[in-house]
Amino acid sequence: MPTVLPQELVDYILDFLHTSVPSLTSSSLVCHAWLPTTRYHLFRTPVLYQVSFGRSPKDNTAPFLHLLDSPLCTFRHTIQGCVLNIQRKTVLRRCVDALAKHATLTGTLLITHWLGDIDLTNDLQIPHKFSSIQSFVYSTLGDTWSGNLAQLIVSLPHLESLSIFTNIRKDMHGTLPIQGQQQQVVLPNLRKLRLRMSNPSELLHWMLLLPGYTPQIETLDIIVYNNISTGWGLVGALAPFLVANSNTLKCLSLKLQYNLDLQLHHGSEHKVIQSLDIGSLLNLRHLTLQTHDIDALCQTATSFLDGRPHALELLTLNLVPVISREWSYDETHTRARLREYLDQKYTSKVMLLHIHVLCPIHGHVPSDEDKFVKAQNLLVDILPVWENMGKLRVGTVQGEQWQTDSLEKINKTIWGCPTVPFTRVLTRIGTL
């Protein structure tokens, strides 16, 4: 291949390769420093994975590390973040060391792993090597928390966004200890908090009692995995956490996601919350609510709107009209309760109302199609007054909305796939 190629041909080849990291990193266009500056964005947040799913192992770390260490590499300075989906600790350490040597990460660092004994702070020295990152995403598919997770969180001074995704059933008491008296300020820039876990209450409680931390969250996005189909699950510490952030909170999303096999931890001091008062959030602009309990959903929304002095920009209600253990719709009850709470009411308190009906997919085609048809029927003339005023948007969401297995099955459809662009990955797990 000649050293000079027409720009149009280079762009065409790179556009063809950009969704496949192994193909891109092994391309001579990259390895021989022919990558044009217009394509540097392809390496702003590379996705590295080393995973073994049965007989289909996937590993793109070796060619990327070879490229990164090459004197011909021209895009090191463009790397802003990285996704590390690594099974082996030695490979993870090698990737961390190489990134720390050749790049200064200031964007998103996403670490997902199966290793229960991994120490991100003392062993991998994440806070020391990536002290400038602004967004940290921690996703574990194992059964135990990473050691010193609390120390890692408070050791990132520039952190603006924190996301924790896990299906661990164990308490976090040993992982998130209440620290001693601290004089220094911690997490001064933290504005976004996204949690996907069975019991977020412990983490929220820990943050409230963290010495040196002043709550200033602007975006709070929580999904609670629970085997309880009523109320709001284990969010006991959410109410005081919302009060602590009431002056700054602008976007709140609270979703209860049913998990049939998830057992509540016996002896836990946190109880399932049946009703939730969010009336103190006067600066809130966007509110998203989701639970199988239509009464809890509507009561929380209407009680919030009752005490609000000015209109909410966007209210999103995700309806899950399914009796989870029987997998059958109860659309009649859902429609009746929604109309009772909202029809001809609160139209002056909300600028735009989105109503989504979630349609779980279980692989049985006739049953799935029947649920989808019923979901569409549920939305027909559901709130006529809102619709006539042009303030209502409705739609259905098809997909696996709850999981009877562990998160590993879900993540297998996300990670380790070389044809999935990074932006689509982050959009699906909710970090964009």
UniProtKB/TrEMBL annotation:
It comes from the Eukaryota. This is F-box domain-containing protein.
